[in-house]
Amino acid sequence: MDTNVQSINLDAVIANVWHAIGIVVCTVGFEAAVHGLILACLIGLLGLYLRKQKHKTGVPLLAVFRKLSIFCILLMIPGLIALSTAGQLPHVGSLKLPSIGLFAFWSLILVHLTAEEMNFQWF
Question: Dihedral sign, CA of 45, 49, 52, 58?
């Protein structure tokens, strides 16, 4: 039997994994939620304008704004807790999330939500 094998401390490994998950949820979730909230506010403003103009798409856009903003606010909660307790978001290392990628991600979600909401309300 090989005596050079080192033992693994399972408690330390599990603690490190939970720490990494917490960092990713706090930082990545917060950054993604901020970008989603920006796009939701733009959709909300567009929905208000179209509803004021008595256009048919105003009400579904406001419903999409409500749903997406609630989801983004819930997604921001761990990051806000980290900001309020530590004063900054946890450092993720070399991970970079470009804004253009996050805006593209949320715009795909917005297209789907808007089409579903229009289909639900109109038909």
Answer: negative
The backbone region for 87, taken as left when phi is positive above 0, alpha when psi lies in -120 to 50, beta otherwise, is left
Backbone angles phi, psi at 52, to 5 degrees: -65, -30
- SS3 percent helix, strand, coil of the chain, rounded to 5, is 80, 0, 20
pTM of the full predicted structure? Answer: 0.82
* Angle (nearest 5°) at CA 67 between 66 and 68: 95
Asked whether the beta carbons of 63 and 51 are under 8 A apart, the reply is no
What are 13-72's pLDDT values in tens digits? 898 998 888 888 888 999 999 999 999 999 999 999 999 999 999 999 999 999 999 999
> What does the alpha-carbon distance between residue 75 and residue 26 come to, in Å, rounded to a whole number?
9
